[in-house]
Each structure stands twice: as C-alpha cells, then as structure tokens.
Amino acid sequence: MPIGAGAIIGAGASIIGGLFGSSSAKRAAARAAAEKLRLTKKLNHLETHRQAVINPYEDVKSVAGFATDLSSQMSNPFANLGVATQAAEIQMEESDLALAASLDTMRATGAGAGGATALANAALRSKKGVAANIEQQEKSNEDKRAAGEQQLQEAKMAEQRRMQGIMMSEEARVQAAQAQGKQFKFSAKEAREQGEIDRTYQQLTGAAQSQAQARADQTGAMTGMFGSLASIGGSLMSSGN
Amino acid sequence: MENNLNQNIFLQQFNESDAIAYNKDFTSGVSDYNFQILDNAYRNTGRVYAKLKLAIDSNNCQDETCAYELSEIKHLQEAPQLSLDFISSLLAELSVTDDPNFDPNNDFKYTAANSIMTAKPGFSKSDGYNVYLDLLPGGSQQIVFTGPAFQEPLIINNTALNALNESNTSLVAPTPDINKDMLRLLTEVGIFSPDMVGENGQLTAGAKITQEYVIMNPDGSFDYEIIDIGNGKGRNILKYDLDKIEKKVTPFINAEVAGLLSSEQDAVAAWNVYISKGASVEEDDQMVQNANAAASSWSYTEDLPLMQDKKVLFEKKYKEYFMNNYLKQFTTNQLPTVQADAAVFDLAEAKKAKAQKFIDDNNL
C-alpha cells in the first residue's frame, strides 16, 4: 500500500488494504482476460489457417492405357499352309512319261501285253511313292515354318507383355510413392500444426484458470471490505438520524 | 501528440529520478496528501439519506408513489460498495503507468492521476493537486482530478470505466511483455527440437537450431563459413538456410500477431515501445521510449481502430523484430557440432588448403 493512501482515499486501513488488493486482483484478472482473448484469437488463426485436408491419391491415374490389345498382332500360322497339288500333278505326268517310255521299249523288244500292264502298275506305284515323299517333306517344312512363326509370335507377345507389365508396375510404383510422399508431408505438417494448436489450447486453459483465480482474489478482497462498508453505511444512517 | 509524449516522459523521469529529494523547497515544505476522497464524498450523504427517508415516512414525497425518493435511497445504499469498486478499478487502470515498459503515448493525465493516487512526491494538495469523488444523481459516480498537470480537470465516470472493462478495453493501454512473448515464440516455431526447451518453457542455454536448417555439402558434410578471429587464426561456423527458416517460422508468427491484435490498443503499445523501430528489450527503457515514442508512433486517439495497412505493417515488423532480436543469435557464430571441425586453425593454411582442393576438384 502506498504511503498516505489512507489519507488520499479517506477510509480505514482495512478498506484501503482491500482496495489495493482488489485493484491488483482486477489488474491480474484483466491481464488474464486479455491473455485468454489473445490465445483464443491465436487458436482461431491456427485452426483456420491449418492446411486443408488432402487426398494423397488425387493424382493417381489409371494405368489401363498401358494395356494394349495384342490380339491384332496374332495370326494363325497354319492359315497359309500350302496344299501339295503340284506334286500330284508332277507325279501323274512323270508316271505317264515313264509308262509311255516303257511301252515303247516293250514294243521294240516284243514283250507281251501282260508285261506292259505290270510295268505300268509298277511305274505308277513308284511315282506315287515319290510324290508322297515330296508332299510329306513339303508339309513337314510347312509345319516347321508354322511352328517357328508361332514361337516367334509367342516370344514377341511375351516380350510385349513383359514390357507392359514393367511399365504398369513402375507407373503404379511412382504414383504410390507420390501419394505416400504427399501423405508424409501432410502428416508432418498436420502434426506440427496440431502440436501448436494443442499448446495454445493448454495455454488458453491456463489463462482461463488465472482469470478465475484473479476474480476469486478480487471477490476475497472485496469481501474483506464489507465490514468496513457496513461502518460507512452505519455512519451514514446515524448521521441521517 | 508530441506535447503529450513529452509530458508523459517528463512525468515518468520525474517519478523515477531522485531529483526532488534534493529540492530544498520541497523538503522544507508541507506535503499534504489528505485528499479524503471517501470522507468528502459521503460527508453530506447522511443528511440527504435522512431527508429522503423522512419524506417517505411522512408521506411527503415528490409524488404519491415516492418513486424518486425510493430510487435515491437505493442508490445511496449501493453507493459505498460502488465507490470502492470504482476506486479499485481506477487504481488498477492507473497502475499501468508505473509499468517499466509503459507507452508514453498514452494520455499523460493518467500518469499524473496515478502519481496523485499513489502519493508520489510533487503531487500533493500542497503542490496544488486535488481529487474528489462525486456521487451523481441517478447512481453513477465520477472522480475528478485537478492540479498543475491538468489544463482541464480529468473526469472519469464509473459507468464508462465499467463499460470499458467489460469489453476488455483499458483506460490506459498496457504494453505487452514482448520479451516473454518472443522467448515463448522461439520454442513454438518448430526449428528447435523439444529437448531444447527447459522446464520454464524457454530454450535451454545451449539450444541450437535443428540440423535440418544447416546448409550441407552434396556429400553430406557441413558447408562451413570461415571467420577470422584475429592473430592469423580462424574457425568454422555453421551456415543456416535462412529462407527455409523464415518459411517455417512465418505461419507461427502470423498466428502470434493475430493473437496480439485481439487487443489493438496493446498492439499499438507494443508498436510504439518496441516494434516500430526494432528497439531491443535489452536496451535501456528510457532509451526505448525516447527512440520509439516519436514520429513513427501510432496514436491511441487517431489510429484506433487499426486500418488494414497498419495491421500488415505490424505483422511485417513484428516478424523482423523476432528474426533480428531473438532468432539471429541462433543463426550467427554457431560453432560446428562436429568436435574436430570446431577447432581453431591457421587461417593462411586453411586458405591454401581450400585453394588446393579447388584445383584438385577441378583438375586444374
């Protein structure tokens, strides 16, 4: 209490003590109220300026575009298999020629008709066998070509499937990594902002408690003055009477 | 405005100095502080109370309902408590002028009023000052200060003061404790690890900014700056990514400013005393007042409410203040954390080695 405060105000010591106690408590309450208001505004600012919730997968695109229909590249390697008709024609021609030549020889040597027929049959069988062999070889070659072509196409498609698989999985990996990166960044910032919000909230709670305490102190100081107030009121009444 | 400022600074200097103790006129004269505020205010109230009471009892009121008389009696009964509440509120407001970081741009009359209420030398009745409490019709009260420091009486009404207090506004703007705020802010901006914060909520003595903000070479080693410490010797110091630091701290500073601007008058006080010219709290209070409370200061009567451009300027300068007066010490002359790199070395040899490394690296 400042020197002379009693004289300045013109009241008893208990009133003066109460007045200064009350004024200190009021100042403390005002400070706590201001602090509470400041922290409330700060908290509001932190909450309204925190980052927007993100969807870390928003940039993920479909990798279906990398899948291509490879069926157009497929063909039936057996579709163009050659039919060995020419071999049959040659066989027939060659049989005819051989038969004619044998008949000429038989005529010149005076062979009978039965021999000629047997010869002709033998020649025919021979030619048929040759023709069948050629056709078999040609078909075998054709089969090998078809099988080779099939293997080649299968190998090509397998390679394309492999490349396609790599591209799809790599793109998916990059997109997943980007999404994880965004998620990490968001989480780190969110944790930081939330930390500050939590801290400010704690401080705000503390300020509210300080304010309540200061008000209680103020009430206590005022209560202490009530006895003295009664004396003022009493003197007022008595002087009136 | 400047006159008010000078008056306030003079009053503060006068109150803080011991000069008056050496003034023979003062020491030999009477200092009467017997203002008797309550005694004077209630001197005639007994008579008034009795008249009103008698009027009611004798059925001699102004009208048949005795409404006026009953109302005035009620006011008189409530008056003592109201007076004490008023005086304590006023003392709380005026005590701001005693704060060491008080903004002298506040009305100097409050400084003078506080000097009277706290019986400071030179503000007694003998020095020509007086203060009295008036109980006004209708139940309100007012305190009036008069004396040489007041060209006109300073009148404060209790209802006005209550209204201000209820809306969290002050008669005299207190200056925020910027030092405390900034020290706390340092721990909140996210560039120090939590283990650097002590139990008192402030950074510990050896606190360092986390390595995330130290500039490194591509090979992961520290990119030191070499400083000359004299006598041909040098030593390494850490280099910091100041842009990264600024980006990191800015949102937290903005939030702090938003909180500070919840009371614009407090923000004006902070601006006038510290922020406008970047005066450090380490500077002498008087120097701060002399330096800041001048042309660049904002007026409580003319600049409130604060316009948007002033708020933006406040935010900008607040950040500068934080960066220059508080954060800078953590980004300058910081010794390496690697023990071997922290040793003092011969500057000439270091320069030679550096040149050789450059030649080697570039195949020159």
Could you give a short description of this structure?
The complex is a heterodimer of chains A (241) and B (364). Chain A has helices at 5-9, 13-48, 85-109, 113-240.
For this entry, give a set of tags.
heterodimer; A: 241 residues; mainly alpha; rod-shaped; B: 364 residues; 2 domains; three-stranded antiparallel sheet; 13 helices; 6 strands; elongated
Strand count of chain B: 6
- What is the general shape of chain B? elongated
Largest sheet of chain B: 3 strands, antiparallel
| Number of β-strand runs of chain A | 0
**End-to-end C-alpha gap of chain A:** 35 Å
What number of structural domains do the residues of chain A give?
1
Could you spell the SSE succession of chain B in H and E letters? HHHHHHEEEHHEEHHHHEH
Question: What proportion of the residues of chain A form beta strands (DSSP E)?
Answer: under 5%
The helix tally of chain B amounts to 13
Uncertain parts of chain A: none
Could you say which structural class the secondary elements and strand pairing of chain B correspond to?
A: mainly alpha
Rg value of chain A: 57 Å
Strand order of the largest sheet of chain B: 1-2-3
Q: Could you tell me the mean pLDDT of chain A?
A: 73
Greatest interface by residues involved: A-B, 51 and 54 residues
**Uncertain ranges of chain B:** none
* Range of strand content of chain B: 5-15%
What is the total number of structural domains of chain B?
2
Quote the distance from N terminus to C terminus of chain B: 69 Å
In words, what does this structure look like?
- The complex is a heterodimer of chains A (241) and B (364).
- Chain A has 241 residues and is mainly α.
- Chain A has one domain.
- Helix content of chain A is 80%, strand content 0%.
- Chain A has four helices and no strands.
- Chain A is rod-shaped and about 175 Å long.
- The model of chain A has no long low-confidence stretch (mean pLDDT 73).
- With 364 residues, chain B is mainly alpha-helical.
- Helices cover 48% and strands 8% of the residues of chain B.
- Chain B contains 13 helices and six strands.
- In chain B, strand 1 and strand 2 form a beta hairpin.
- In chain B, helix 4 runs antiparallel to helix 5, helix 9 packs across helix 12 and helix 10 crosses helix 12.
- Chain B is elongated, with a radius of gyration of 31 Å.
- The termini of chain B are far apart.
- The mean pLDDT of chain B is 86.
- The chains are: A mainly alpha (241), B mainly alpha (364).
- The interface between A and B is large, with 51 and 54 residues.
